[in-house]
Write a structure and sequence with these properties.
alpha/beta, Pyruvate Kinase, Chain: A, domain 1, four-stranded mixed β-sheet, about 65% helix
Length: about 300
Amino acid sequence: MSTLKALKTRIQAVNSTRKITSAMYMVAAAKFRKAQKKYDAAKSYADALTHTMKALPLSVFDESDNPLIKSYTSGQTLIVLISADRGLCGSFNGQLFRKAKEICSKLVLENKPFTLLPIGKKAFEFAKMNYSHCLKESSPLLLHEILYADVQTLFSKIETAFIQDGIEQCITLHNEYSSPLQQLPCHSILLPLSNALKALKPSAETSKDIPEFISSEPQFLDAFLLQYLQGMLWSSITQTLVGEFAARMTAMDNATKNCDDMIHSLKLEYNQSRQARITNELIEIISGAEALQKG
């Protein structure tokens, strides 16, 4: 009797959990569609900026005295770590933090100092727990509250650190959104642009596509570089946001399916126990009736 009651209670508890995971899946799906529209717009903008950057001739960068282009041989590394604000999204945050530990450990082995600029509540908690002495912010920057208008203020902090605080390079570390089922951690060089340009590999063929500008090349370049860097940062933020909701959808869908499997197993065990109990009672009744007949 106690076994049947315990199984019934457990079935009700798992069923309640299933309702929660199912509801969280639907909420994540609704937020995912909204975040995907934002990401698609940011990706189109970032692709256009990258195309323009590739099309610019190298002579424009060689002749520029913009401090964001020049590289420094020594100094700190600024790591912009972008994560989700919440958990319950599978390995989305865990795999990112493992990658962050690998990069930080490598810098420690090379005796290179580094500073962490976390974006997202989980990134702030990770940095505070593991690298509190390298933490640049005293309070978390919440990912879901950042708008494109806030990127300018955020990038100004990075720019000031790079120019005034002796930062050798600035890298962004986030989960790259490939599909709703796959988000893998990646890092890219944000500053200095001399290192970022090597990855872009601008060619002479694409330089034909650049229109002529009324302003001088240095004026255009200074304004364009700010737009380019802010666009890349915004693209990384929107990728993380849409990836978080996609990962949460997958995690909650898997949790709901696991609940269904568990409920099925528990109901089977409950029915077997119930049938065994009924069989035992029937055996006792029949045995008692036979004993009365013999007596």
